[in-house]
Design a protein that fits this description.
Order of helices and strands: HHEEHEEEE
Largest sheet: 6 strands, mixed
Number of strands: 6
Oligomer: single chain
Shape: globular
Helix content: 25-40%
Radius of gyration: 14 Å
Amino acid sequence: MNSTDAGQGIRTVLDRLYSAWGDYDADAFAALYTEDATVVMPGVFNDGREEIRDYIAAAFEGPLKGSRPLDEPRRIRFPRPDTAVVVSEAGILLAGESEVPADRHHRATWVLVRDPAAGTWAITSYHNAAV
């Protein structure tokens, strides 16, 4: 697989993730993570796909109801053939907002792995921090 194809595969995973968010579908969202994935954000540590699913399901019903994520990959690199690291700039528009407030701008690091047999990518680690 060349880096152009791999880069498109990574973008497809992220597009599917935000599509699941747009549908507020916690199952489809979590399905894009590996079974042993981790999510680290300020005040949050999710260990495994089920914790990620439970966390995002509660968020979709609560503070993220009506929200829309913004995420722009700034760099995608492949330190190993079946591993990708993405650095992005991100924020969340809450219901009724047209602009992300400065205090909610984040930089995120995503680590994705490719299943060589299936040729598909999945998120194995996500971390974000305030800009």
